[in-house]
Amino acid sequence: MHLSSTLAAAVALPLASAQLNQLAQKAGKLYFGTATDTGELTNAEYVSILTNTKEFGQLTPANGMKWQFIEPENGVFNFTEGEIVSNLAAKDKQLLRCHNLVWHSQLAPWVTATTWDKANLTAMLREHVYREASHWRGQCYAWDVVNEGLNEDGTYRSDVFYDTLGDEYFKIAFEEAARADPGAKLYYNDYNIESPGPKSEGAKRIVRLIQDAGLRIDGVGLQSHFIVGETPTIDQQISNMRGFTDLGVDVAITELDIRLQLPADAENLAQQSVDYRTSVGACMQVKRCVGVTVWDFYDPFSWVPGVFAGFGDATLYFDNFTKHPAYNGVVEALTNNTKCKPRPSKMLKRSKPLIV
Ligand code: 9MR
To answer: What are the positions of the active site (predicted)?
Structure first.
């Protein structure tokens, strides 16, 4: 190769070969990761990207650790489905976000079919959380201990756990998870808590509930299932994250995807790129935002088209494995915001001068 073309290639290399986990770690984050699911692992091209630790340093099983798989009958535990992704992560030394211990959805039918009282539901819940979390002891970087326990107005969601135990069920779940796996970071995880508002306030109330009970909560997971053109602004996302970190917990973007109204065109893909850059950029600006997880990275494996008619193309890779423009939006966020902007000092807000 001629020297000048070698040089040109070398100059072009950083962006062309930029890979997300590598860039995230270089910028001081713990990981850039993705959700994945067992049925997807027969696609060789998909798996080669999934297991490339320069691209993804963290995996979340999208389904395999949910109650319906783990305890399909009362007292009968089966970890096989969850182990497929946890073993894959271990093989390639990827961090594992474990998802989830308590959720109103994807429960085993017997849980909702049983009539519970406080005593027997407490015992059953303790057993479920302890057995599941201790099974993966030492393997989970983080556990989503309770998932989606809030209504949109910030009040607690009515479900089998809340209706019988009230907010006590959060404490039970966090207490057992901490006992079962002292090394795992324990998270509350939800959607629509990515900008300030009543639901985000509800999530803060949960953090304080656990802390005031003398129990451990380490983080809040911001799912971040967004719509192109409707993503909260970077300032909203940053101030929201700081609302949580001010309580002494970490935050993470745990399920990022940004769906567009099909068909994709130059305009909505360009906006999607801006929107991905905004969310990842917010995490970059907040020191205790530990990392970003996308809710799968390949359009055919996204949950979006099955749930939102007319919407899709929410991830970073198209059907043919070419990258969305949004991939570069993420790269820009990971490379341009490597330093955390200093926060305005609390001292400046003092009304009276400090007497020394
Ligand atoms: O990606 C998951 C999909 O395969 C399941 O069908 C769906 C069932 O509710 O759950 C999806 O994952 C959800 C996650 O567990 C919690 N937050 C919302 C996610 C998307 O629905």
So the answer is: 255 (nucleophile)
Cα separations in angstroms, 7 against 1, 10, 16, 112, 149: 10, 5, 14, 64, 55
The CATH number assigned to the domain holding 97 equals 3.20.20.80
The torsion angles phi and psi of 249, rounded to 5 degrees, stand at: -120, 160
Query: What dihedral do alpha carbons 21, 26, 31, 35 form, nearest 10°?
Result: -20
Cβ of 223 below 6 Å from ligand 1: yes
| Residue 324 lies in domain | 5-334
Collapsing DSSP to helix, strand or coil, 54 comes out as coil
Residue 178 forms part of a structural domain: yes
State the catalytic residue, choosing from 201, 255, 267, 332: 255
pTM exceeding the 0.85 threshold for the entire prediction? yes
Q: Is 39 in the pocket of ligand 1 (CB under 6 A)?
A: no
Whether 255 is catalytic is: yes
Residues of the chain with pLDDT under 70: 1-17, 337-356
The number of the ligand 1 atom at minimal distance from the alpha carbon of 99 is 15
Looking at the structure of the chain, the number of domains it has is 1
pLDDT (tens digit, 9 = 90+) per residue, 107-126? Answer: 999 999 999 999 999 999 99
- State the DSSP H helix or E strand holding residue 132, giving kind and residue range, or none if neither: helix 118-135
Q: How far is the CA of 214 from the centre of ligand 1 (A)?
A: 31
